[in-house]
Write a structure and sequence with these properties.
Elements: E1 10-15, E2 27-28, E3 34-39, E4 42-46, E5 50-57, E6 62-69, E7 76-79, E8 93-100, E9 106-113, E10 118-124, E11 131-132, E12 136-140, E13 146-153, H1 154-162, E14 166-175, E15 178-186
Parallel strand pairs: 10-12
Antiparallel strand pairs: 1-15, 2-7, 3-4, 4-5, 5-6, 6-15, 7-14, 8-13, 8-15, 9-10, 9-14, 11-12
Organism: Selaginella moellendorffii
Protein name: CFA20 domain-containing protein
InterPro entries: CFA20/CFAP20DC (IPR040441), CFA20_dom (IPR007714)
Length: about 210
């Protein structure tokens, strides 16, 4: 998707307020999805396993992407849509602004290293220890109450888990259960005030009498 794109600063792959369908570049998991209400900021789809839809979050008073399902692995979204395509993102940091729904949650980042090997990093809040396999690394992630900014150091994790060098990111998968404001890559971790609007989580302004 981004192989021929000049990559510097921040590179967004999901922003909940981008157009009528912010998941245009994403594939929804599951079968027999029914898409409804693709007007304005309201849209959604359902399957036998769970829902992926837009909801208005009460904390930030804005529309976000919600992924909810009883089976974590069967409900989610993948970017890019085409299994034969690759993100080809070379930026070293993966960032998600997600809300803790106090249920099981999981995400996955698939990368290629300098040995031309595909490595999958799967992080979840129901795992307590890291387990490194030949091509899959299972990791715990801890979310605070409410909204979180999750940072993932791709070169550091690749080097620590496999002793190799990170080359690029191939694919990103986000599973139930969470709400998403944005998903992006960046060349370094930026202070909040240095980020463009679509890379921030805006909280409502409290007007004091």
């Amino acid at each position: 998707m981004f192989r021929h794109t000049y990559q510097t600063g921040c590179l967004s792959i999901l922003y909940s307020l981008r157009g009528k369908n912010p998941l245009q570049s994403w594939k929804r998991h599951g079968e027999q999805h029914f898409v409804y209400g693709l007007t304005g900021n309201e849209w959604g789809c359902i399957s036998a396993y769970g829902d992926v839809k837009s909801v208005r979050d009460e904390d930030i008073e804005s529309y976000v992407v919600e992924i909810m399902g009883a089976n974590v692995q069967m409900t989610g979204i993948t970017c890019p849509r085409d299994n034969s395509d690759s993100l080809a993102v070379r930026l070293p940091f993966f960032v998600m602004i997600v809300k803790n729904m106090r249920r099981y949650f999981m995400f996955e980042v698939e990368v290629i290293d300098d040995k031309n090997k595909h490595r999958r990093f799967i992080a979840s809040n129901f795992r307590t220890a890291t387990r490194v396999g030949q091509s899959v690394c299972l990791m715990p992630v801890t979310l605070d109450v409410g909204w979180n900014q999750v940072h993932f150091d791709l070169p550091g994790c690749t080097r620590l888990a496999y002793g190799t060098n990170y080359r690029e990111t191939v694919r990103v998968r986000v599973f139930a259960n969470c709400r998403i404001r944005s998903v992006f890559f960046c060349d370094r971790i930026y202070a909040e005030e240095m980020l463009p609007p679509e890379y921030k989580l805006f909280l409502p302004i409290q007007v004091k009498p």
